[in-house]
Design a protein that fits this description.
By secondary structure, the protein is of the alpha/beta class. The chain contains six helices and 17 strands. Helix 5 packs parallel to helix 6. Bound molecules: acetamide.
């Protein structure tokens, strides 16, 4: 069994130190194996432009946010998957980090950028791979990756049992779609969304909350309210994700006919 969940909260735009402190305070009393945080939970999301993002993003080789979260994971003996504005040379990636008691384990850089993110971030260049956390295979994706079913399928084909999904959702379709992703791949998914709004001089962007944990077969374990802070944890049995037969004669991965899917790879 694995104790997993999410922390849905309201980051304050540009207040990186305050947002870090908020996360550390919220998670300091928690007993868990794996907690997922939203996308870009330390910087905020609604950047005026690239210059502002550059000022707030951090390089992983010198990141107070990574030090703080690494220390938290070591002290609490849990794992975190968190969004992160990652500076790397001239590029800035909208990344997700897997951090454990011994520090940084994996970096995934969002491959499907949403809307104005395309003006500011570099599209991800890391493959979709699977990591092991306490014997469970986890896959990572970030927010808008949800609309491409290929992402969860690619992770499921590599054995992912739990999809960790930091998000800053502004549309209302994702939660429903993730039930289907979990049905068609028979995996768990933890979507950690933020709530509240980034009120900026150039406009206001509202986020939709409703973070959720979904089980194989598309069963909703829990969905948070849209506009409230929430720390949710549940015991799951990751082995449930290994049963890929949906009828005795239908294996959802082995019954695929990739020879008919060639346009997918063009
Ligand atoms: C999103 O990808 N932040 C909608």
């Amino acid at each position: 069994m694995l104790r997993v969940g999410f922390y849905q909260f309201r980051p304050l735009f540009g207040k990186v130190e305050r947002n870090r402190r908020k996360v550390v305070e919220a998670l300091s009393q928690v007993e868990a194996d794996l907690i997922v945080l939203p996308e870009l939970p330390f910087t905020g999301y609604h950047f005026a432009g690239r210059t502002e993002l550059e000022e707030l993003a951090e390089d992983l080789s010198n990141s107070p946010t990574l030090w703080t979260l690494g220390e938290l994971c070591a002290r609490k003996n849990f794992y975190l998957v968190t969004g992160f504005a990652e500076k790397s040379g001239k590029d800035i990636f909208n990344s997700a980090l897997l951090i454990g008691p011994d520090g940084l384990i994996h970096v995934y850089r969002k491959i499907h950028l949403f809307d104005r993110e395309k003006e500011m971030f570099t599209p991800g260049n890391t493959p979709l791979t699977v990591q092991e956390v306490r014997g469970t295979k986890i896959g990572m994706m970030v927010c808008f990756d949800w609309i491409f079913p290929e992402v969860v399928r690619t992770l499921a084909l590599q054995g992912a049992q739990v999809i960790c999904h930091p998000s800053n959702l502004v549309l209302s379709y994702c939660q429903q779609a993730m039930l289907t992703r979990c049905l068609e791949n028979n995996v768990f998914a933890i979507t950690a969304n933020r709530f509240g709004a980034d009120r900026r001089p150039h406009g206001t962007l509202r986020f939709t909350g409703k973070s959720q944990v979904v089980a194989p077969r598309g069963k909703l374990i829990y969905q948070a309210p849209s506009q409230r802070e929430e720390l949710f944890l549940a015991e799951i049995d990751p082995q449930q994700a290994n049963e890929k037969f949906i009828t005795p004669r239908n294996h959802i991965l082995e019954d695929r006919r990739p020879e008919f899917y060639r346009p997918l790879c063009r």
